[in-house]
Fold:
Amino acid sequence: MKEYTVAVVGAMGAVGHEMIKTLEQRGFPVSRLVPLDVAANVGKSVRFKGADVAVAEAKEGAFTGVDVAIFSAGGDASLVLAPIAVAEGAIVVDNSSAWRMDPGVPLVVPEVNPEALDAHKGIIANPNCSTIQMLVALKPIHDAYKVQRVVVSTYQAVSGTGGKAIAELTNQAKAFVAGNPVEAKVYPRQILFNALPHIDVFLDNGYTKEEMKMVNETKKILDPAIEVSPTAVRVAVYRGHSESINVQTEKPFTVAAVRELLERSPGIKVMDDPSKLVYPTALDADGRDETFVGRLRADPTVPNGLNLWVVSDNLRKGAALNAVQIAETLIARKLLR
Amino acid sequence: MKEYTVAVVGAMGAVGHEMIKTLEQRGFPVSRLVPLDVAANVGKSVRFKGADVAVAEAKEGAFTGVDVAIFSAGGDASLVLAPIAVAEGAIVVDNSSAWRMDPGVPLVVPEVNPEALDAHKGIIANPNCSTIQMLVALKPIHDAYKVQRVVVSTYQAVSGTGGKAIAELTNQAKAFVAGNPVEAKVYPRQILFNALPHIDVFLDNGYTKEEMKMVNETKKILDPAIEVSPTAVRVAVYRGHSESINVQTEKPFTVAAVRELLERSPGIKVMDDPSKLVYPTALDADGRDETFVGRLRADPTVPNGLNLWVVSDNLRKGAALNAVQIAETLIARKLLR
Structure:
């Protein structure tokens, strides 16, 4: 089996760490791992297949000989470095929002639109975490019944913000238990024992950038005709985004048929037996690859209405895993030489 | 000013405690407070207006001379004791779900349907916490634009479950910080750093009883024509329920007009200036009387669509305050002699 030189840009971040772990866990054919990060992190190392691999600086020249570069270094770094990586011969899978809506850049969830990869010009974008898990769940429903409108409210984990937010939640818990004042630095308000209806920046239309990602990325990945009305909320959870999703479809369905359909769809695990208190929660999804679906029930307030509860690990399927799956799909589709 | 003998049934519970505090804070005209609870709590006392008041047993005979009895003792106790209290001469304001859907029992949010009190036959029901705050926010919108359909996802505090759940969240936080195993007893799963799409028991239609309360109580209190599609979720918050509400109205509106309307509506405080990161959270509502509304924005995916974020203290407006306000409204409408 052919093996590849794989760069991970932003190797020291929460998602970068998860990407390296995912490459190893899934046995991605890596001949050489090239962990890249900012200059301040050069000299540090990452652990990969039982060895320490030194971190190099993510800059011009760093991508020579790299077959695929998986980026999770933020939008600004991606805007500068992704074209450099492509010029130096790498295919880029970028986890930031920088390139997602570029018409020349495929935006891919492998279970949903792998064929979009075929038209890539060097950069491939990994969708937003909250979009990925929603579309994994909606894709089979859309294929069978044609999704028209989605109202979604999210319950998103702090790890989506990064390592500093994870530490902030822990520090707030420690301060609370010790009876000390709880300080908020990463978020504008205390996240411990709270829920903030605010993820990413606010836009002029009153929605946040996070919310508009769910609107626009759904149209690009699944179907421009699907209307999404989102509310994105941060909760005091470390890992695992949950989503309360209300769907209207064009064609009628039974809940039993939807359940069966989802049970045999890729990337999905149905956990839905309320009589036995079986439903997915963020803690169930932590560290898991699947998108979990539960609370399936008809919404009788509209024709062909459905409510469901969708949970996935935002660092895995929502970020690192989806990016690695894109790289795997590049191999499967013979797009990575 | 005439004063009244007021019994609080379930005086030692989380809501009972809040009721007694609310009676004092609002200067309700109490000539005598009668705290009642189960036999095991007799001998304990509650603090009211600087004095300790002994708890008596909630049983036949306990309501003699009582003008108004505010119940928060659970549905089973209310089913037995409310008719006894009425027979002994009291008007009952009941916080449980036992009587809410009884056609002979008014179900009242004073800002929404105070006139329903006029037909009371002794028992008045206090609606479910998650319904109350939703309807305080929707009432002005309904009057002006006619609400047709609501999709709501909740972020509900553990105090809605009671004192044991509050203790469980604290114990889980202490165990987590100490590095000990986190135990779940009150909830079927760990609530700390998690979100459970499960409040009250599951029904045959796949919805929980909590969710169906929002459906049925909205029809009874505000308008039988309003369709509600709910998802009720417990989060790791002590006090303050948040709700992500998507509304469709019959008549067109502008968001600015809705914001102005809500700003001048009773019981509502609008906190909605995203450019300055102004939006309500559970911690803002803790201990406050108002229902807070923010994140007002048009939903362009349907005609006359609106998204909003509604937060209120579930123990106050969601329970104790609304019950005391019902008693106040009984006085104002000359229904309490």
